[in-house]
């Protein structure tokens, strides 16, 4: 998958530190030529069917994710201009947009990597060290799925459920975040599942529990394992 990260300018980094903790995460987001870009997918839009329809994938990737990229770039530009003018009030005003659109870009970039066509890297069960860790911290792979699906079903409104690793202890847990809030601090995101309606409604309508069940058929455990072991 094409990367979307490049280093920000000193002014932008300073502004990101000034506005909010979630926004700090944006300083490491991928850029090309100074701007965030929509990453390419390593599979066709229809490759994840029947778990996720090609129409959903096309709209989700080319429209929704692109909107987050555009919004993030606009917020970074406004922040840079405010920093150049030493206007701390205007810089701080960009915090919500940086968090929402930057988080949307980060979360979705990870999400696409989480997925692969069934039988071609997607589905099945994790192996190796990741499998061992899941058994130790959840009791079994089935328990991980049940806990994650319960967390997804419990999200009020829009948000994400994440399998995360504590950077200090190495232990795994499932957490949720509202809207597009990214995973920050001492937690490393390994696997994220999008619970926004745009991720499933065209196909599953109000039957989101079916989407939460079906998506496990296209989870790319190889990618999740690489994140876990790094």
UniProtKB/TrEMBL annotation:
Mn(2+) binds at residues 60, 108, 194, 198. Residues 126-227 form the Manganese/iron superoxide dismutase C-terminal domain. One of its GO terms (cellular component) is mitochondrion. Pfam families: Sod_Fe_C (PF02777), Sod_Fe_N (PF00081). Its EC number is 1.15.1.1. InterPro entries: Fe/Mn_Superoxide_Dismutase, Mn/Fe_SOD, Mn/Fe_SOD_BS, Mn/Fe_SOD_C, Mn/Fe_SOD_N, Mn/Fe_SOD_N_sf, SOD_C_sf. Its cofactor is Mn(2+). Keywords: Antioxidant, Manganese, Metal-binding, Oxidoreductase. Residues 37-116 form the Manganese/iron superoxide dismutase N-terminal domain. It catalyses: 2 superoxide + 2 H(+) = H2O2 + O2. GO terms for molecular function: manganese ion binding; superoxide dismutase activity. Belongs to the iron/manganese superoxide dismutase family. Destroys radicals which are normally produced within the cells and which are toxic to biological systems. This is Superoxide dismutase. It comes from Cordyceps militaris (strain CM01). The lineage of its organism: Eukaryota, Fungi, Dikarya, Ascomycota, Pezizomycotina.
